[in-house]
Design a protein that fits this description.
Elements lengths: L2 H7 L13 H12 L10 E6 L2 H8 L13 E8 L9 H18 L3 E6 L4 H11 L5 E10 L24
Helix pairs in contact: 1-4, 2-4
C-alpha cells in the first residue's frame, strides 16, 4: 500500500477481532509515530503501551467515549512531555503529527485504530493521569485503541472544494 492509499483508506475502527497485535506490529506503528516532524525536533511525545485487560478497562472509563479501548488488544496513551520544552505549547501539534503517523501506519499494515481525545478536557486529562501514573509536566493528550479490524469501513472521499481558498480567505 502506498502512502496516499494508506491516508485515503484510513478509517476510525472501533471493533476488533480476537487476534493479538504482535510486538513487531507495535514496533512498526511506534516507529512511524516517532518519525513525525516536531518543532525544533523536540520530540515531546511519550507513549504508554497498555496490553493488560484490567488496565484497558480502567482507561475505558477515563473518558466518556473510550469504551472500545477495553475491547482492543492494545491501548496506547500518547502524552506530551513539557518538562524540557524548547518551544512552549507546540507539544500539541507535535503529538498530533505523531498520532496521525501512527494511525496511517496501523492501517497500512492491516491494523485498525481509533483516536480517543483526552486533552484539553481537564477532567479527562486528570482521569488518565491517575490511571497511568503520569507525572506532573507530562500531559495525556489522547488514547488509541489498536487491533485487527473487526469491522470493514469503506474509504470516503472527504475533499470539499469550498474549504479551499486561493491567495486570501474568500479568494
Amino acid at each position: 500500500m502506498d502512502a496516499v492509499e494508506a491516508i485515503m483508506g484510513r478509517r476510525s475502527i472501533r471493533t476488533y477481532a480476537d487476534e493479538p497485535v504482535t510486538d513487531e506490529q507495535l514496533d512498526t506503528v511506534l516507529r512511524a509515530a516517532m518519525a513525525a516532524p516536531s518543532a525544533g525536533n523536540q520530540q515531546p511525545w511519550r507513549f504508554i503501551v497498555v496490553r493488560d485487560e484490567t488496565q484497558r478497562r480502567v482507561l475505558a472509563q477515563a473518558t466518556p467515549y473510550a469504551g472500545m479501548i477495553a475491547r482492543a488488544p492494545v491501548g496506547l496513551v500518547i502524552c506530551g512531555d513539557t518538562r524540557e520544552e524548547k518551544h512552549p505549547g507546540y507539544w500539541v501539534q507535535d503529538c498530533s503529527a505523531a498520532i496521525e503517523n501512527l494511525l496511517i501506519a496501523a492501517h497500512a499494515i492491516g491494523l485498525g485504530a481509533v483516536w480517543i481525545g483526552v486533552y484539553p478536557v481537564e477532567e479527562r486529562v486528570e482521569n488518565v493521569r491517575r490511571a497511568c501514573g503520569v507525572p506532573a509536566g507530562v500531559f495525556p493528550m489522547s488514547m488509541i485503541a489498536l487491533g485487527h479490524p473487526g469491522e470493514a469501513k469503506p474509504s470516503v472521499d472527504r475533499y470539499e472544494p469550498a474549504y479551499v481558498h486561493a491567495e486570501r480567505w474568500g479568494g
